[in-house]
Write a structure and sequence with these properties.
By secondary structure, this protein is mainly alpha-helical. 48% of the residues lie in helices and 11% in strands. A three-stranded antiparallel beta sheet has the order 1-2-3. A two-stranded antiparallel ribbon has the order 4-5. Strand 2 (16-21) and strand 3 form a beta hairpin.
């Protein structure tokens, strides 16, 4: 199902894509992803927002912790325990980066929030649903290029399909649909 979803995903902008799965259309937006995952909407999050990312990277490390700098980021294995593994999971399943050995500045925006439990006001929170939509789009492009290893977000795809099925005029269940 995830491959069919990815192959039929059509991006229209950075905040909108459509998917036609077995005859019905799903309109993907950060708002929909927020609704089905209960992740809070917040400020848009783009990899290109380097200023905020660099500040988060600096704040992430405590006194005495030495990041292993790489020309593009920080070597993941230089993160203190357990953050190397958390960084790996973030890279593999959220940002869908593919280069698992380097943690980039934009990853530190999430890592900082996770490590320090930063309770930011809603209007300043990262917009993870926006980022997940971008990741779905990136995954779709890679799958269409023939790299099925890059298929990601199976759980999110199922949640999006189930939500859409429940909101049809005649609601369907996953077991009937699949």
């Amino acid at each position: 199902m995830a491959q069919e979803f990815s192959l039929s995903l059509t991006p229209h902008s950075i905040i909108h894509a459509t998917v036609i799965v077995r005859g019905f259309t799903i309109y993907l937006t950060p708002d929909l992803i927020s609704k089905v995952t209960t992740l809070t909407l917040g400020i848009p999050w783009r990899k290109e927002d380097k200023g905020d990312s660099q500040v988060a990277k600096i704040k992430f490390f405590l006194e005495g912790e030495e990041p292993g700098e790489d020309k593009n980021g920080v070597r993941r294995e230089s993160l203190p325990y357990p953050w190397s593994e958390v960084g790996y999971q973030l890279i593999k399943y959220i940002s869908f980066e593919g280069r698992y050995s380097v943690v980039y500045g934009y990853h530190f925006r999430i890592l900082e929030e996770l490590r320090f439990g930063v309770e930011t006001p809603p209007h300043q929170r990262l917009r993870i649903p926006y980022f997940l939509l971008q990741s779905l789009i990136d995954s779709s492009i890679k799958v269409k290029e023939g790299n099925s290893q890059q298929l990601a977000h199976h759980g999110l795809i199922r949640i999006l399909i189930e939500y859409s099925l429940q909101n049809l005029r005649t609601p369907l269940t996953w077991s009937v649909f699949k």
